[in-house]
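so my prof wants the structure for this chain in the tokens format not the other one, which i didnt know existed until like an hour ago. anyway here's the sequence
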Amino acid sequence: MKKILTLITALLLFFSADAQLLPPNQPEQDACNALILCGNTFTSSFSYQGQGLVNDLTNCMCDSLGISAAEFNSVWLRLNVNTGGTIVFTLTPISPQDDYDFAVINITGKSCSNFSPSDVVRCNFNNNNPGSNVNGVIGLSNSGTTIKAGAGAFGNSFQQAINATSGDVYLIMINNFGNYQTGGTSQGFTIDFTGSTATFNGTNPLMSSITTSCNSAQQIMLLMNQNILCNTIEPGGTDFTVTGGTISGATGVNCSGSNGYTDKIIINFSAPLPAGNYNLNAQVGTDGNSLLNTCNLPLIVPASLPFVVAPYTAPEYAAVIPPSCSEIKIALNKKVRCDSIAHNGSDFSLSGPQNVNIISAYGLACDTSNFTDTVILVLQTPLSYDGTYTVTAKKGTDGNTLLDSCGLKQAVGNHISFTIQSYDGQIIAPNDTVLCRGQYIQLAATNNASLPLQAVNCGTDFSSCSSNPKIAFVGGKDSLSDANSPFFGSASDQRVQYLFTGNELKEMGLKPGLISQLQWKVLQKNSTQPFTNLTIKMGCSGLSSLGSNFIPTMTTVFSTNSFNTTIGWNNFILSTPYNWNGISNIIIEVCYDNISGSGNDFVAHSFTPFISVLRGTSTSISGCAISSGVVSSFRNLRPKIRFNICEPPTKAAVFSWSPSLMLSDSTTQSPTAYINQNTTYHVSVRDKDGCLHRDSVTVTLSERHPTLEPQDSTICLGKIITLTATGGLQYSWFTTDSSTISCLNCDMPTVKPIAATIYHVIISDQYHCSDTLTANIKVHPLPNVFIEPRDTTVKYGSIINLTATGAHYYTWWPAGGLDDARLATIHATITHPITLNVLGMDDNGCTNLDSVHISVDYNAPIVIPSAFSPNGDGRNDLFRIGSLTFQRILEFRVFNRWGQEVFNTTIPSEGWDGTFHGEPQEAGVYQYLIRIGYPNGRVDLYKGDVTLVR
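here's what i got, hopefully its the right format
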């Protein structure tokens, strides 16, 4: 943001003899934020330090000493030329002993960030020694004849005027070196353009934005687009109103009383504003004016700017940043004070599947204001159990939870959870496998996790840095000082040792490794000569506080014949890098040996709770040979330092297999295992962060119990036997003659071999593991059973003898009509055609059949009398059919001569007694009709005459 400053001679009246020293890195210390000048005169009562965030001008034609320090404790001004003409000015220090320099850069047609030293058109870097400049005044004049006065020059106070045209843009950089003898803080300056014919005017100021902070309900900060004169800000705040609130006062930032200028105004409210939307309204205050810029141009009123009072939240856990194993890194919703973190970790509790203690905690990379938005919790042992863990806030031994910049406390019980899942694919075990039988196998794991780091011991190491270095700025809240500066140039010889505790280094995020670079940031350079024979030494130490004697056993890690400091980071690449073990305290020594003194370079310092500095100076002894130091009240004010540390080299991963039983080596990547049962092996490695990575492999041993019944059997030829296989899911049968088996892929086939045959079955389980079993089936021949006589015909009712041979045991059937069905020779009564069967069994239990068919001859004579005499003498009294045995009378009828039936029967024992209805019939001839049936279905018909004799 550009700032416009008026040039009003009257402002000189308001400045006291004591200037206000501003903190480093003010916006106007960078060219792109230069103060825009207008009018004739501008006075600054501020003393600037450093060169801002950007070193815009590293050298110029006035840098005749070659010290590359063109910009030093600087402030930038800007001239936008409205009307062409000459530019002259006087640069007058408020204290005539202050040594000011200037450089004028023509950036017409360029931006504020891309000019070069060649764009410098005028400069004066001379010394303000007595007789050089009158009252320290330098500048441009119409009588000047040179364009520069080089660094270290005497006299030549005024350079040649600039002929400017309308539209030209010039930057003026103003350096201050403080008192020309003692250095230190300057008293401010006035730049007066009286005599210039060129003009440069400004515009009215505007309200730019409102910045709220944690106490925004009680206070806001108004940012202006230009600098405002401090004496135009009405202290009671009547330049403003807020609807819904009462303003109690207003103060300009960096305003010392009514002096100076500012672009930031703090507005206080008499009572806190509730959360909501508001408008800040500008008006003419009780001092009779609105805000005036440094050109005396007013803020046009009415003017309004909205702002929001947001509900304010306490610090809370926002996220757990992986990995979370040996340390838990927690991002917060806002920055908290690093000194509100209990170093013993008592502000936090951890719960989860594994009971692990938090042994320390620190803020990660605490900034120069000692705030951080990330906390690190160090665990006693790394987390090794999978599951969900919860970090919960509690009041620690420091008496509080985490505190933000306003002192608002994190709520007790605020918590955040995270999950440890070690089966994450970083280590890959072999695929699950199945073995069909116990055997040796090799288990080979693939490790994709980061390799663990080698342990390092304190000491020098000539290895090169093989990884990206970790950079940490070690120290607390900044305090600009030269008290214990490693570049204490006012002493011709100095030796200083700084103690850094291992806990400090860890709290700034440093891990064990190789320290390859050290850096100190010079914020104000006062030294005017290089440091000769500058040496840096390092060493690990068990000391928790420094005494009055220097530690002699230090190792030189850097040395140079001459070193010239510069504004900003001064980097020392160690010729002998030094290993830090991550635990020990470290002592760093800096010493040099100059011929004479110059000025002290200011560096960022911070206070420590222990004696951290031992410094000794001399004018006669080489700095590195000084043996004892000064005991003073500033021995706990230690310069801040930036470490570059590289990770140690990696080492081979350490594998852990379990169970370890039956393994050749449970700690190798590829052990050999003997498998005699189902086993799940778990393999794990730890990476460089202490995180455990796991995988598993299950080796399944097929547990089969195949059976085949029968496996050895004997059958009789022609018999069928069932083979039963069990213990599998699939069955495959093989034999020399597949026609003798009913199926080839079932579990219970039937077989009918005609000779001794071997049957093989392959029994496979769900894993396709198989066993081959064998059934040996022997075949006995059948007995040669034979019946004699063979098929024959006999008379009805005949008894026939039949004899079976060829076996030992016999059974005949059907058994009806046989005398004994279990004899080899039987007697059979034949009353009908019949097939008689015999089953013969030999000593092997084999049986065979034979049969014989016996036909029946039914031809038997039928006797039919031709006469009978029913006279009651008992002889021939009935007319009946004689010689009937097995025949059947189907019809037996007798007729008289008139055709009348006189007798009818089908009963073989009956006959005609010569009567009809009980009446004797007369003697004579009668006719008969007889039909006889046979068992084989034959029917014979007989007709004839019979004579009844009386």
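also thought this was worth mentioning. The longest strand covers residues 568-580.
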